[in-house]
Specification:
The strands form two sheets. The protein has a three-stranded antiparallel β-sheet with strand order 1-2-3, with no helix packed on it. It has six helices and five strands; from the N terminus they run αβααββαααββ. By secondary structure, the protein is mainly alpha-helical.
């Protein structure tokens, strides 16, 4: 079962802001201050991390960089997995087709004019759409500039994926294509393999415990929902 992408993306936006990607055709996709997502995989990541650090009060260092990467991964997984669950299709989110804008608050806004599907089975299309086309170049840019370890970035990507399926199970419990098997497949292969323990119980939702730290604990009185520190003995550092 597949669904036309533009109407599907319009429906998906109602699930929540992380699932929104505007499919409206535009002669100029940059209208309104949007920029190609590909810019974030080069020098453009610095400005985004600086803005995240300003909002968090941490400055543009490793904590802000980790949070920025996790936030972008969340947006990408949410759109891709949401389309797969609701419509049985994965959109081509290639960096040259996807546009972004940073709002004053909330997640980055995405624009995907004239969306088209990726061919192939859903698990492979999801892997290509996010892990290959986006996370690989994004992680390289973040590692090179901010020195974050691959373990942190892989753990962030896994947390982002699990966050997307949590929302889908809560808000679209009867999705035509169940998303949990897709998530289990993605968590069992590189780059997400070994990033944490994933559990799903019908009617109760999902649980995920990371094996790496996102660094969010360095923000006063804050930890992430998948925090590895919950399972560490007192006195152990991240």
């Amino acid at each position: 079962m597949t669904t036309s992408l533009a109407p599907l993306l319009t429906r998906l936006a109602a699930v929540g802001p992380y699932f929104a990607a505007d499919p409206t055709p535009r002669a100029d996709p940059s209208e309104g201050g949007f920029r190609p997502v590909a810019e974030l995989y080069g020098d453009g990541i610095a400005g985004h991390v600086e803005e995240i650090g300003r909002r968090m009060g941490t400055g543009a260092g490793r904590v802000a960089a980790s949070t920025a990467q996790l936030g972008l991964a969340s947006r990408l997984w949410s759109v891709a997995l949401g389309c797969a669950a609701l419509g049985g299709v994965v959109p081509d989110l290639g960096p040259g087709r996807l546009w972004w804008r940073g709002p004053s608050a909330g997640p980055v806004e995405l624009r995907l004019p004239a969306p088209r599907p990726l061919p192939g089975p859903l698990p492979e299309a999801l892997h290509r759409a996010v892990a290959v086309d986006h996370l690989a170049p994004l992680d390289e840019a973040v590692r090179g500039r901010y020195g974050l370890s691959p373990q942190i970035l892989r753990g962030n990507a896994a947390s982002a994926l699990v966050g997307a399926v949590r929302v889908l199970l809560d808000r679209v419990p009867d999705a035509p294509c169940p998303p949990v098997p897709l998530v289990e497949h993605l968590l069992a292969r590189a780059p997400l393999e070994g990033t944490g323990t994933f559990l799903h119980e019908e009617g109760l939702g999902v649980a995920f415990t990371r094996r790496s730290c996102c660094l969010y604990y360095r923000v006063p009185a804050a930890t992430c929902g998948d925090c590895v520190l919950r399972t560490r003995p007192p006195g152990r550092s991240a």
